[in-house]
Amino acid sequence: MTTRFEDEDPPREDEEMDPVPEVELAPLAVPKSMERVRMEQLSTGPVDFVARCTQGLFAGRFIYINRTPQGELFGSDQSSKDVTMYIENAGLSKSHAEIKFNATTCQYFLRDAGSVDGTWIRIRWNRSVEIAPGQEIRIGDSLIEVQQG
Predict the structure, then answer these.
(1) Which residues in the chain show pLDDT less than 50?
(2) What are phi and psi of 39, to 5 degrees?
(3) CA-CA distance, 54 to 144, in Å (whole number)?
(4) pTM
(5) Per-position b or e across 117-127, b if 16+ CB within 10 A of its CB
């Protein structure tokens, strides 16, 4: 018996073909019947943090934040051995900001790394962040400097 492939000539009438085994296909997914999962139902697991660029030259691209002790240092200095996330043409300082994972608290922390224009964070989802004297807060078009009073 002979096995033929699609790109070959059709079999002659006097030639027998091997039977094609039947393949079992997975059922089609129906989104309406799928269970919705809330974020708090997902376990953290060993997966690193993922950030998605939502505006600018790299919109739609993902950045994977690792849990190593040095974290990720964002900057525009391609020759720096400290910069782990080199981003060109984005208006970043040579060493701009870093994100580190704290294994004790299982949290990620953002820190400005001496950038010229600062590092800003948008607060959403009814969350709070600590403020301290010397910090600047941008609310709408207003820039507010926090001072001890």
Answers:
(1) 45-47
(2) -55, -40
(3) 25
(4) 0.57
(5) eebeeeeeeee
CA distance 66 to 63: 10
- What is the full DSSP assignment across the chain? -B---TTSPPPPTT--BPPPPP-PPPPPP-GGGSPP--GGGS--TTPPEEEE--SSTTTT-EEEEP-STT-EEEES-TT-SS-SEE--SS---SS-EEEEEETTTTEEEEEE-S-SS-------TT------TT-EEEETTEEEE----
Quote the distance between the C-alpha of residue 100 and its chain's center: 15
With contact defined as beta carbons under 8 Å apart, do 91 and 123 qualify? no
Q: Are 15 and 8 in contact (CB under 8 A)?
A: no
CA 64/CA 86 separation, integer angstroms: 13
Q: Hunting for tokens 């953002």 — which residue is that?
A: 110
Written as one string, the DSSP assignment of 84-116 is SEE--SS---SS-EEEEEETTTTEEEEEE-S-S
